[in-house]
Write a structure and sequence with these properties.
This protein is of the alpha+beta class. It has a domain at 62-137: Beta Barrel (OB fold (Dihydrolipoamide Acetyltransferase, E2P)), CATH 2.40.50. The chain is 24% helix and 31% strand. The protein contains 2 helices and 7 strands; from the N terminus they run H-H-E-E-E-E-E-E-E. The protein has helices at 2-27, 37-50, and strands at 62-67, 70-72, 77-81, 87-100, 103-104, 115-124, 127-137. It is elongated, with a radius of gyration of 31 Å.
């Protein structure tokens, strides 16, 4: 009885294995014998690697999270100095929508040291037009993770066995 079961199992495994091998062989197209297969496969990859990234759409606003380092009240603009020392200018216009959370705000609400969040349009590498502000105020503290500790609620109770995948 054991020999019969073993023989049937072996025959079934062989039949399934041979069917999948035949199916894979049918799916692969035959490569021409006179053309090297690797040269054709590398051309699209090389063309994709050489193609430059499309520039960001200048009409599409992007997120803004910055800290104000200086203010030009007459020009209604403020600047931020990056870590590398480059100054980035944020210009407001008559179209700029000033909000601070749900409340209305004005350019006068912006102070040196404030964090300003909102949306901006790129004018150049060092200049942006502010479309909308959503937060003006003290910089929000960054949540620091204690070293070596897991976030609360991720520990398993000591009595529970580990589940196998």
């Amino acid at each position: 009885m054991k020999k019969l079961l073993f023989t049937l199992t072996l025959a079934a495994a062989f039949a399934v294995g041979s069917q999948s091998a035949l199916a894979q062989a049918k799916k692969k197209p035959a490569a021409p014998a006179d053309a090297p297969a690797t040269a054709d496969a590398e051309k699209p990859k090389a063309a994709a690697a050489e193609k430059p990234k499309a520039p960001a759409d200048p009409t599409k606003p992007m997120p803004m999270h910055t800290v104000v380092d200086s203010i030009d009240a007459s020009g209604k603009s403020f600047t931020h100095k990056n870590k590398d020392g480059k100054e980035v200018k944020y210009v407001t216009t008559a179209k700029t929508e000033f909000k601070n959370g749900e409340k209305d705000a004005t350019f006068a609400d912006i102070k040196v040291g404030n964090e300003v969040n909102g949306m901006r349009l790129k004018k150049s590498d060092t200049e942006y037009e502010v479309v909308k502000t959503t937060y003006i105020g003290a910089p929000k503290p960054k949540a620091e993770k204690p070293k070596g500790e897991k976030p609360a609620g991720t520990e398993k109770p000591a009595g529970e066995p580990k589940k196998k995948p």
